Structures are given as C-alpha cells and as structure tokens.
Task: structure prediction
Amino acid sequence: MSEAAAQPEVLVIDDEEQIRRLLRGALTAAGYSVREAGDGSTGLREVAYQRPDAIILDLGLPDLPGLEVLRRLREWSQVPVLILSLRAHEKEKIAALDAGANDYMTKPFGWGELLARLRVLLRREPATAAANVVRFGPVSVDMARRVVTRDGRELKFTAREYALLRLLVTHRNKVITHRQILRELWGPGAEAQTHYVRVYMARLRQKIEEAPNQPRFLITESGSGYRLDTD
Amino acid sequence: MSRPTESSRPSPLFLRWLKGETDALTPAQEYLVAALAVAVVTGCGFIIRPWSDYWAVAVLYLFMIVLLSLRIGQGPILGAAALAALTWDFLFFPPLFTFMLDRFEDWMMFGLFFAIALVTGRFTGRIRLAERSERQRARRATALYELTRTLASAQSADEVLRHATEQVQAQFGTRLALLTADPADPDRLVLHPAATYAISAAGQEAALAAFRADGGSGAGTWATDSARRFFPLEAAGRRFGVMAVETDSTASPADVLDGFAAQIALALEHERLRAVSEAARVQAASDQLHRSLLDSVSHELKTPLAVIASAAESLQTTVPAPDRPLVGEIHVAAQRLRRLVDNLLDTTRLDSGGLDAQLDWCDLSDLINAALKTTQDIRHGRRLHLQIPTGLPLVRCDFDLIQQALANLIHNACRHTPFAAEITVSAGVDEAARRVWLAVADTGPGLREDQLARLFERFFRGEPRRPGGLGLGLSIARGFAEAHGGALRAENQRGGGARFVILLPFETHDNVPAE
Result:
C-alpha cells in the first residue's frame, strides 16, 4: 500500500470517454494513479476531496467552459494543470496560460511529450532555486553570482536581459506567456507591448544560441509564449 | 353611463358664436348680422323708452357695438355704427322722425358715438385677430403632435406612409401623395397606394425631377407648379422621397407642410435604422449558430482522429517489431484525415467571414520554425534550405494564420516536386514597397501557364493528378494572407522551379524603452 501512496495522482477532466480511457491506460502504465471526471463541476469536486498532484484538463467541457474551471480552481488551489485541448488557436492557448494553466498541449498528442511535460509539472522545485547553477548545453547560469557563461566564457547582459533569462531559468521547461513576462519585467501597464518581449528574446538568442534563427533552448511556444528547454 | 363633461354641455348658439366657437362668417353674413343686431336693439329701445330718456337708448346701441366688434370685422362695425346712429336720430331723438340735429351737445353726442364705435371696433378687432392666429398655431401644433405620435407608433415604413397620408388629410384637409425611392432602384420613385391625391403621370415625372434635383432650396419647397407643390422627405442627410401636395386642397402655408415632410422623413429614418439593427441582430444570431455548429462539427471530427492518432502512437512502442509499419500506416492515415478536416474547416471559416486575424508582433524566424515543425512528417528526408537574414524586423500578423499559410506552401512544394528537388524557405523585407515577404521555392518542374491562372482556385489540383489532397491548401493560404491585407503570388523562377511568395504589410513598432 505504501508503494501505491507514493504514486503521483493525476486527475483527468475530459468529457470524451475514449480520451479518458486512453489517458488512463497510458498514465497507469507510466506509474501514475489516475482519477477521472466527465465534466467541470465533478472535476472541481474531485480536486477538493482527493487533492490530486496534477490535473489534465480539456477546454471543451459540457457544463462549464474549461477556462472557467481553471479560474475557479485557481482561486484556492495551485495544483499543476496541463491543458489538453483539440483547439490549437493561439488565442485559446494564451487565455488558458494566463488564467493559470501550467502547460498546454493539443490533441492528438504524442505520449512521450505528454509524459515529459507531466514530469516537469510534478517536479518539485528546490526551495532555494535561486542559489542553483542551472546548465543547458554549453550555457551555465549561476543565479547566486549572476554570472552566465557559454563554453566557459562569460556573457554580458543588460539588467533587463538578465531579468528575462532568470525568469525563464526559474520556470525552465514550462511555458511563460508574453503577458507574464511583460508584467514581470515592465509592469502591468505594458502587457500589450508584445514587441518588447520579441525584441529582448531575439537579443537573448543572439547571445545564447548557436543558431539564433533555429533556437535549441529558447523555444517559442507558437504565438503564446516561451519555454527554456533544458532537457 | 358616463357623466357629461364640461365641453359637451350645450351652450346657447349666441354665446358660442361670441366666443368664436362657431365657423367664421363671410363678409355678407357679417353685414346681415350687424343689421339684425341694430333691429333687435331698436326693438329693445322702444320697450324701455317709456321709462327712460333717449340718452339711455344710445348707451344700449353702444353696448351692442362693443359686443359685435368681438366677432365681426371693421367694415360691418362701421356700418352698424352708422345705421345705429341714424336709427337713433330718426326714431328716438326729438324732434322724432327727422334727421335734424340742432343743439351742440346733440352733434357732440352723434360724433362721439362714431368715435367710440370706431375705437372699440379697432381695438377688439385686433384682439380678435391675435386670438385667431393663436388658435391656428395651437391647432397646427396639435396636428403636428398627432402626426408625430401616430408615426412613432408605426411598425413599418409602409405604416408610416399610410398614417402620414391619413393624418394630414384628417387634420388639414390637405390631399397629398407620398412618393418614396424604390429600394431596388434608388433613381425611381414609387407612389404609395394610400395617397389621397390622384397624382397624374406628369405630376409623378415632376416629382422625380424634384427628387433628383440637388439640395433643398432651404425653406423646403422644391418645386411648385400650378397644381401641386413638392416637399423633400429628407432626414439625417438622407433623401427618402417626395411629398406632393395638391395646391387646391390646402390652406396650410409652406412651413407647416414642410414640418410635416420633416416629421415623415424622421419617421422613415427611424424605421430604416430599426430595420438595419434588426438585420444586424439576425445576422449576429445566424453567425453565432454557424460558429457553434462549426465548433461542434470540428469537435466531433477531430476527437476520434485524435484518439486514433494517439492510440496508434501508443501502440508503436508495444506491438512486436514486424507489426510496427502497420501502426505507422494508421498514424499517417489519421494525420492525413486531420489535415483534410482542418482544410475543410478553414475553408468554411474563410467563406463565412468568421476569420478574424489577431494581429500581434511576431518574429519571422519563429513563424518559419513553427511551419517547419508542422510539416516535419511530409518533409521527412527532403533537402531544405533556410535563407533568413539575421536582424529581421518584427512583423505584425496573426501567428497561427501565417504559420499555417507557410506550412501549406511547404506542404504543397513537397507534394508536387520529385523527392530529389530542393526546397528553400526565405524571408525578407522590401522597405521601399513597405512589404515583408516569406517565400517557398523549389527546384521542381515549375508551373505551366494554364496552371498559373487557376492555381488558387478552390479544389484545383495540378496535372498530373497526385492522389490525396482536395486542392484547398493554396486557396486557404491566399485567404489567410489576404485577411492581413497581404497577398500570395506564384511565379516560375528563372533557373526553373516554382516560387510562392506571401506578402504582408510592413509596419514598424514603437521603440522598446532603453534601460
């Protein structure tokens, strides 16, 4: 029983039974314990009583829009939420991420990718993340000393470039939306100025990536945001 | 039973006449009334004579003249005064039955009698005129109010025209015909059937000429000929038609009729706006229905495909190696269906006008990378070059749409060129033409002249026909580019092979604040 308790519990909220069965099979095989909910209100109840470790949420639910479920959930819970939706529009993606989703995938999904993203969501961040040295490829970021090196050579950043890099590093492997970045770096008044982010991201890529036009680490999540891929 | 109201209580004809509640008299009738009054007062004079002096009779005559002047004009009053003076002189004044006046005070009496009659006549006459014009104004205001009230309750333009015709006829006895612009041909006028004035064909011609004439003449009357006057039905700068009034049938001055015309035009404008907003509401409801239908069709088609694709991918790792190609086939087939569904839905979206480009600043290399990722499977094993200069400016576009347009072009290049052909994706800015371009070129056989012309037609598939695909990809790509105010061009390269270029408007963003 103690082994079962160690299994992370994932709640799947999706009205399509076939999708739930598929996810149950694959997630169980990958070592998760799975609960299911067929609509938004059942899902919210499940979260309240069962306290799952992560949620896979569909946006097109019969009773409540998935976004509404997410908003209500975020009023009292910070459980990681992965959106799994048929809708591939950036607008929906951005809305979901801004409403507090931690990641977004579209159906049909690749199993490898789904499990990898779920792993990232469940990874407990060390409390002293700032003290860590994070490495990806030839780059290493020393958050305590504020030193970034590539192939051992130190890179120069402006204060705001470094702030952007630090934001991506602390949320590494997760999507950060433009709005989140703008709010963090330029304040709430600048949320519509998406070109700031694009310009700064281009500068970061110039310094960090080997081929800035085909980035390996600073990945664009289509129109919605960015992800620092360190895996 | 209802109690009789104040106004319904009958009062003597004489009092009503004095108050002006009866119809106005003709001049001949006024003289007759004056003579009658003199006769009546003379009779009264004979009755009181035994108890009074002849002076008292003069006062009776004067009283009569004051009363008369409330209702009749100056000429008849003067006549009445003269008749009364002579009668008094002849019948009551000593010596009786002569017109002789001897004493000074008798001459004075006679002269003053005239003076008082004249002054009171003039004075009360003026009051009477003021009263009459006030009454007329009030009646016009009531009529205009009645018209406005009736028109406001009209439910359609037809009702507006019918009520207007009836009201003007009822309130003023004016016969009129309303002619409105034909909705099908705004250069023609249609006569509304409720017209109370049988306007002739020539009259209608004249109305049309007035309608076409530029600008009103200020006061409102456009044109007048012997038989009719025309008033513009014009409100909020829009001309609805012409009100033709039969001149014989109206006593109303032009400004009153012009007020009517303005009210009718306002009611028509109101009706037009109501119709427009109603149409917009119906359109919105239909769009909403269309969208939700599209959403559920999209959901129902895509869900099973997603299940098939995901299940196939899951099988890939679990089935024995010899069966894996079969699973791969399932995966490819599901993907092909998914593309088809996407294309059909996009085409429907383009058709229904449900496409709404969400403009945002995008990085061109991000766009290209996303399109490359989307086309990963079909490009598998093919040679692809990227020519993207560094430091390209940001482009304001809908990331989804342009990414997909580009993916469609890459997909197209892969499908219609031999496997050995190379594909080049490039991008750049044409600062002079204020345009950004994204191009997909190949080293394939190129496009034939007849193909070039029909390339972007829906369901057009190049010859020789390759299996698969509906021929929607290029028309969708062009639709998406055009939704940005851009374009999609196809051309043959000088060295051989086809080249497709997406052109987008080039805008510059505000400066990013320095640190």
